[in-house]
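Write out the bound-state structure for zinc ion.
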Amino acid sequence: MVTMIKKQSNKASFYKSLLIAHVRHYGAVSRKQLGQSTHIRMPVVTALIRDLIAQGILVESGRSATGRGRKQILLSLNSRHGFVVGIEFDLDRMLAVGVDVCGNVVAKRSAAMPAQKTNAAIVQELIALTESLIRESGYERSALKGIGVADPGIVDSREGVSLLCSLMPEWRNVPLRRLVESHFTVPVLLDENTRAKTLCEHRHGAGQGVQHLLLIDVGGGIGCGIIIDGQLYRGHSNMAGELGHVRVVENGPICNCGSSGCLETVASYPAIIRQVIKALQDGTQSMIAELAGHRPAAISMDHVFEAARQGDKLALGLLDQAIRYLGQAVANAANLFNPEVILLDASMAGAENLMVTPIRQIVHRQVIAMAGNTPEVRVAKIGAEAAAWGVAMLMLDQLFDSPVKGAAPWAPLKANAALKPL
Ligand SMILES: [Zn+2]
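---
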């Protein structure tokens, strides 16, 4: 008898998870639609929905507007059921967002990276920023369901460990998930920031509805997020998309990854700035020096772009070289993956004519010319919080994962042999 009750309750929780995953993916749906697509018998759907509403997970959210016959009551996730925190960091700053269970950003906060970039200081600051975001989220602390962390380097997301980061040499083998989990006692997920950004653009930004997508993330490093058949692609050991480390220069500069001549060593923003400083030290005249107040440490890409707009030879020359390497690498990636859309990082939005147009031209010149094979090159549109929001969405996916093994939570739920009626 006890076994039978346990079996029934396991089955009920399996079906509840399935119903939640379905509502989360499709938005407002009626009980009838849920019954039809999940193949769960209607009396069971009705009973389980009653429970989910009593638990505060689902809410009734109006009636269907179209269709013949009686208008159906629609069900949605209850945004007040809870929230997750997404947090991202790079060399200079960290940014956290609170995201309700429906996927909406409800709070945002940023902080500078600690002056002393020891691993302990970084972890402490990540925890402090998350604490202050929770206080400002408008939710009780008990409504926090999980935390996603987007790391600028390479991570082992299964083990929750930050493996290495070319920007921060000390940031190696940090058991970040365990450290954050032990403080907050909620599930914590660790992933790479390019991947998180890509997911965010795919769900909420310039990549919505695109089944085959590449996002080229240019900044401190260079990464490539990959969506295949509507889902993030991670590769065999979670390292797919390391576009910054394809070799583009024989005997080129040494890269922090241990190799040399990597794309990142000649075309990332720090690499361009390094080349500017070297040229100025060698006596090259450029208005970049003036724009940065003659302080080499203050030179930023904004100065380089501004100088290029005004026809500065050094800025134009270095940008042209970086764009040729970058455009070539993006075109190679396009020939490998055959994407429908390529998104360029949102940081290029202010440099449309200087960066986006020439990269688009190189891609269109070098991608195999066949009808319908030319990928559209767009600028990503979410901006600064893309990785934090994206890793929060990954956390929500984990929390509300479809119980059907192998099915993505947002994948259409098909009739499945595993779904025998209760
Ligand atoms: Zn490298």
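---
The CA atoms of residues 117 and 171 lie 9 Å apart.
The longest helix spans residues 2-26.
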